[in-house]
Specification:
The complex is a heterotrimer. Chain A is an alpha+beta fold. Chain A has helices spanning 7-14, 50-54, 83-87, and strands at residues 38-40, 60-63, 70-74, 93-95, 110-113. Chain A has a domain at 35-98 and 107-120: Alpha-Beta Plaits, CATH 3.30.70. In chain A, the strands form 2 sheets. Chain A has a 3-stranded antiparallel beta sheet. Chain A has a two-stranded antiparallel sheet with strand order 1-4. In chain B, 48% of the residues lie in helices and 13% in strands. Chain B has 15 helices and 10 strands. Chain B has helices spanning 52-56, 61-69, 76-91, 97-125, 129-150, 170-196, 198-204, 212-217, 223-226, 234-237, 258-281, 332-344, 352-358, 363-366, 384-397, and strands at residues 12-16, 28-34, 37-44, 159-160, 163-164, 299-307, 310-318, 326-330, 371-372, 379-380. The two termini of chain B are 29 Å apart. Chain C has one domain (22-317). Chain C has 13 helices and no strands. Chain C has helices spanning 2-11, 16-37, 53-63, 74-92, 109-131, 134-165, 170-180, 184-187, 189-202, 214-217, 227-252, 264-284, 291-317. In chain C, helix 4 (74-92) runs parallel beside helix 11, helix 6 runs parallel beside helix 13 and helix 7 runs parallel beside helix 11. The chains are: A alpha+beta, B alpha+beta, C mainly alpha. Chains in contact: A-B, A-C, B-C. The B-C interface holds B 12-15, 20-22, 35-36, 123-131, 133-134, 137, 197, 199-200, 202-203, 348-353 and C 34, 37-40, 134-135, 138, 141, 206-207, 209-210, 213-218, 284-293.
């Protein structure tokens, strides 16, 4: 038995940088395939509704059908699971790397994707 | 389990729970003590019940993937693997080989993650906060690897019915090799440290003893069972995913106490590194999933996997639609509960946190509802119709 | 005029105000050093390098709701936090911090300071007992048993310097060390180690934080205290840390004695910081003992070591 076994390791770290990341003053490490905010390319969307039916938490809503369809994503319900990205036959949905999505107002958490206009 | 009537002697009761710093989730252990020694334990479960089995019945099979993933934060991949295996069997599909290997790699990485997390929590429970901080700093390595593979640090969404959702690129395989080499050296360092550190060993050796006959009689599973010298591991007894193609050892220790459980988990961590190495080496090329139909033909299936905590059982019944008719989950922690009760009696209050932590409890997986008649000790489970009828009559009477 | 000077000395320097500043400083040092050992930052944002964090915690606790359960024994519950702050302060008046003598001194004040430690444990017992809470009762039982284990080696070890200096007054021991130009730690290292470990047990630092084991009995005897009472208890704990390190500095490290005379407070601070670092380092590197293991270990190892030190000292003096 060697008591105070960890002492060497401890003293080694006193003068090194701590492992804590001082977020938000320092950026965190993120991976390339991070599942963040969903983005829909409306040029490719055909309004089939497969994404909306398959969403586990009913976060994706489709209003209208086919060419006039408007899509709405409720970020407070979204699990960022990526099922919409996988089930879209036109590969129009992509989960970007944006993860800093907190807002102060609840209604800012709804993303609207409309044909003709840019997303709001 | 049947709850004993409190006896009318004047022994002192210490409530561990439902909220307690020793427990990471809520359950209630009522300790009857005499000084520091525990005379009796009364366990009450059910504080974490979320109605998941009922919720599964009203979602499609694809939507259920994500619900089942969230039964537990640490064993999430084990739950989805079990689910996907069950549904794939009902559908009669075979998943591609590459998918089997990717499932195995993620499962073993999750086992490493779970055991590292457990080691940190065990250190915290015996008051060794420094070791806890160091281990959890190393846990970042495996969480970063899982983020590279799946896009998220927990709840990986890697499994889908018919295979896995993402493929692995060659440089990802190199990253994994680097990461697990580092993890293996850190695991060995922690094992040597724990063995040599007197204050740690005296808190875990001889504590929470469970004899092998009791372990078998009370149906303990996982590292709790393997620490009593019994070599039961579902990856060897009933191989699934790619476990029949890799070679590894089933780790057992003979001590039957918390120290043995600690060493079983650290050694399993090192074994997982070897399994991942072999999988990376012989990963076959090919597709990573196959397409499946939406409606699952009628049938019943039982599926088992070796989660980090022990044997996990899922039962599914389908009726030809795209939603399951009935789904049942038996988590390994529930199987370890009677054994836990046996381990606590006769110990000290100071041992309670480390003994409870010793079975690696995951109360989130644990709670499924069952009813107990306190007077007769009979217990049974209601079907959803009975529950609905009871709630309607209760509502009308109120 | 003498009274005005005395009031300034008692209240400000080196009196209560200085001691409170020292208490917060020691807590900050302890937290920062332990954090660095654990690869963390420690307090960071309140004040430069987080130095105002203990003060911020104290002020925050003062502003919080003070809940008293109906079952609690009101007089005990209310008086004990005040006593837990007042007793270490009283003990600190006898220890030379900035001047060669304490604020007060008499032959035998070492025994008084040792008695303050015992009184502290008795006050803790009343605090937990008056809380009328299961976890508190278990905590104070453990605290009392712990006292039975560390009290004897502590007293034995601290008699060593008194034997060497032939006096039971802390101020005289300090003066003896500066007169002889030799610190007592050099001739009684074993006694220093025993005193250090026993004081860790008195301060309830890991591995001896058994009475307040967070994972076992929530917060032990402190469970029911909140708001102002908890603020006083925490300040009392920091003051206890200052008392323990000051006692060790005075008895073994020469007190406010240093190469340049006149800067007594500065030398004292440097030595006290070293002792606090020793406490913090030992606190970070062990797991918690169980109460039966702790009593066993103390009686098997600490008491013989203390007795051995006394025998050695006597042989050296003879």
């Amino acid at each position: 038995m060697r008591p105070m076994n960890m002492e060497g390791e401890l003293l080694k770290h006193v003068f090194r940088r701590p492992v804590t990341v001082l977020y938000p003053h320092e950026p965190t490490r993120t991976a390339a395939g991070l599942r963040g905010r969903p983005h829909i390319d409306m040029a490719k969307c055909i309004g089939c509704g497969i994404c909306s039916q398959g969403c586990p938490s009913r976060a994706l809503e489709m209003e209208g059908r086919k060419a006039e369809a408007t899509l709405r994503i409720h970020l407070d319900r979204c699990l960022f699971c990526g099922q919409c990205q996988r089930s879209c036959p036109q590969e129009a949905i992509e989960l970007t790397k944006e993860y800093e999505l907190a807002t102060a107002e609840r209604d800012q958490l709804v993303l609207e994707f409309d044909r003709g206009r840019k997303e709001t | 389990m049947p709850e004993q009537q409190p006896s009318l002697d004047d022994s002192f009761i210490i409530p561990i729970g439902p909220q307690h710093p020793a427990l990471k989730e809520f359950e209630y252990f009522e300790l009857r003590v005499d000084g520091e020694e525990i005379i009796d334990v009364s366990v009450r479960l059910g504080y974490n019940h979320r109605g998941i089995e009922k919720a599964i019945e009203s979602r499609t099979y694809t939507q259920n993937l994500y619900l089942i993933e969230r039964i537990c934060g640490i064993c999430s991949h084990a739950h989805t693997t079990c689910y996907c295996q069950a549904i794939e069997e009902l559908l009669g599909v075979t998943i591609p080989d590459r998918a089997r290997y990717i499932r195995t790699i993620v499962a073993e990485l999750e086992r490493i993650h779970s055991h590292l997390l457990w080691l940190g929590i065990a250190a915290h429970e015996i008051g060794f906060d420094t070791l806890f901080m160091y281990i959890w700093a190393d846990r970042e390595i495996v969480m970063d690897l899982l983020e590279l593979i799946s896009g998220n640090r927990v709840n990986y969404a890697m499994n889908t019915i018919g295979g896995v959702t993402r493929d692995m690129s060659p440089e990802l395989l190199d990253n994994i090799r680097e990461g697990i080499a580092k993890l293996e050296s850190r695991a060995r360092f922690y094992k040597d440290l724990c063995v040599e550190e007197g204050s740690v060993m005296q808190r875990v050796v001889g504590v929470g003893v469970l004899q092998p006959e009791d372990a078998l009689h009370l149906c303990a599973v996982g590292p709790t069972l393997r620490a009593c010298g019994i070599a039961n591991d579902l990856r060897k007894d009933d191989p699934y995913a790619a476990y029949d193609a890799v070679s590894f050892n089933v780790i057992t220790y003979d001590g039957c106490d918390v120290a043995s459980r600690m060493f079983v988990r650290i050694d399993e961590l090192i074994e997982s590194v070897r399994v991942i190495d072999q999988c990376l080496h012989c990963m076959p090329p090919g597709p990573h999933k196959v397409k499946v139909v939406r409606k699952v033909p009628s049938g019943e299936v039982v599926s088992r996997v070796e989660a980090p905590r022990g044997e996990l059982i899922h039962y599914a019944r389908s009726n030809g639609t795209d939603q399951p008719e009935r789904y049942k989950v038996r988590a390994p922690t529930l199987a370890n509960m009677p054994a836990l009760r046996k381990m606590l009696v006769g110990g000290y209050i100071a041992d309670v946190p480390i003994v409870i932590a010793g079975i690696d409890p995951c109360f989130g997986c644990l709670d499924r509802m069952s009813l107990v008649d306190v007077k007769t000790g009979r217990n049974w489970i209601w079907s959803s119709d009975q529950l609905r009828r009871h709630s309607l009559t209760w509502r009308q009477q109120a | 005029m003498a009274t005005a000077g005395m009031i300034i000395r008692v209240v400000i320097l080196p009196g209560i105000l200085l001691l409170c500043v020292l208490a917060f400083l020691c807590e900050w040092l302890d937290r920062k050093f332990v954090a660095r050992l654990q690869k963390r930052h420690g307090p960071l944002y309140t004040g430069p390098a987080g130095i105002l964090q203990p003060l911020a915690d104290f002020v925050k606790l003062l502003a919080k709701e003070d809940i008293e359960s109906t079952e609690a024994d009101k007089p005990l519950f209310r008086i004990t936090p005040v006593l837990l702050l007042a007793l270490p302060l009283a003990g600190l008046f006898f220890i030379p911090i900035a001047t060669v003598t304490g604020l007060a001194y008499f032959e035998g004040d070492l025994i008084l300071v040792l008695f303050v430690f015992t009184l502290l444990v008795i006050t803790i017992f009343y605090a937990g007992w008056g809380s009328a809470d299961r976890f508190s009762i278990v905590g104070v039982m453990r605290s009392t048993i712990q006292m039975l284990a560390y009290e004897v080696p502590l007293n034995l070890a601290l008699i060593g310097p008194a034997l060497a200096a032939r006096s039971l007054s802390i101020s005289e021991i300090v003066q003896w060390q500066s007169a002889n130009g030799r610190w007592l730690i050099l001739s009684q290292p074993l006694g220093f180690a025993v005193a250090l470990i026993s004081l860790m047990s008195e301060l309830e630092l890991t591995p001896f934080d058994i009475p307040e084991a967070e994972t076992e009995i929530v917060a032990g005897w402190q469970t029911e205290f909140s708001g102002r009472k908890l603020a006083l208890i925490r300040l009392g704990e920091d003051m206890d840390l200052v008392l323990a390190s000051s006692l060790l500095v005075a008895l073994y490290l020469g007190g406010p004695d240093g190469p340049v005379p006149g800067l007594g407070l500065l030398w004292f601070l440097i030595k006290a910081v070293v002792v606090v670092f020793l406490f913090s380092n030992l606190r970070a590197v062990f797991a918690r003992f169980r109460i039966d293991q702790m009593v066993n270990w103390c009686w098997k190892y600490l008491v013989p070591a203390a007795i051995g030190q006394i025998i050695l000292t006597e042989l050296l003096l003879a």
